[in-house]
Design a protein that fits this description.
By secondary structure, this protein is mainly alpha-helical. Helices cover 43% and strands 4% of the residues. Bound molecules: zinc ion. Keywords: Membrane, Transmembrane, Transmembrane helix.
C-alpha cells in the first residue's frame, strides 16, 4: 500500500527503485503554462526575460529555472513544424490558385517569419516546462549541473 503522505515510496518488488506515489507536477498543466510563457509551477509569473531568454527564477514563486537545458531544441522543432506546414501550402498555392510568383514568395516569406517568431518562444517555454514537470536537469532537487552557464 502506498503512503499518500510521502511523495516517494519504495517499490515492493525492487526496494532499490523509488517511485512517485502521486504526480505533483502534472505534465499537461505544465505544458499549457509553458505555451503561455508562464511559470510551470504557479502559472502566473513570466518565464521569459526577453524574447528567448529564460529567467533564472520565477519572479512570483521563486521557482528556479536556471536548470533548464534546451539548446537548439525549440529551433529544431519550430523548423520541422513550419516546414511541414508551409511546404504543402506553398505547393498548393503554386499549383492551384497560381498567383504571381513574386506575390506568392512574399506572402510565404512573411508568413513563415511571423509563424516562426510566434512559435519559437512557445516551444522553448514548453520544453522548459516539460523539464520542470519531469524533474530533469536539476529541477527535481538532484544537481546534475556541470557549472557551465546556460
Ligand atoms: Zn512561479
Amino acid at each position: 500500500m502506498l503512503d499518500k503522505t510521502n511523495y516517494f515510496d519504495l517499490d515492493p518488488v525492487d526496494p532499490c527503485l523509488v517511485r512517485l506515489s502521486e504526480d505533483d507536477r502534472p505534465l499537461r498543466a505544465a505544458l499549457l503554462r509553458g505555451w503561455r510563457l508562464r511559470c510551470p509551477n504557479c502559472g502566473t509569473g513570466r518565464m521569459m526575460e526577453g524574447f528567448l531568454k529564460v529567467r533564472a527564477a520565477c519572479p512570483l514563486c521563486h521557482e528556479a529555472f536556471y536548470h533548464h537545458r534546451d539548446d537548439e531544441g525549440p529551433a529544431l522543432v519550430t523548423i520541422l513544424m513550419i516546414g511541414h506546414l508551409m511546404a504543402p501550402l506553398f505547393l498548393y498555392g503554386f499549383l492551384s490558385p497560381r498567383p504571381d510568383a513574386f506575390l506568392l514568395a512574399m506572402v510565404f516569406c512573411a508568413g513563415t517569419a511571423a509563424l516562426s517568431l510566434f512559435l519559437l518562444p512557445r516551444w522553448k517555454g514548453m520544453m522548459v516546462a516539460r523539464q520542470w514537470s519531469r524533474r530533469m536537469h536539476g529541477f527535481g532537487g538532484n544537481s546534475d549541473d556541470d557549472g557551465q552557464p546556460r
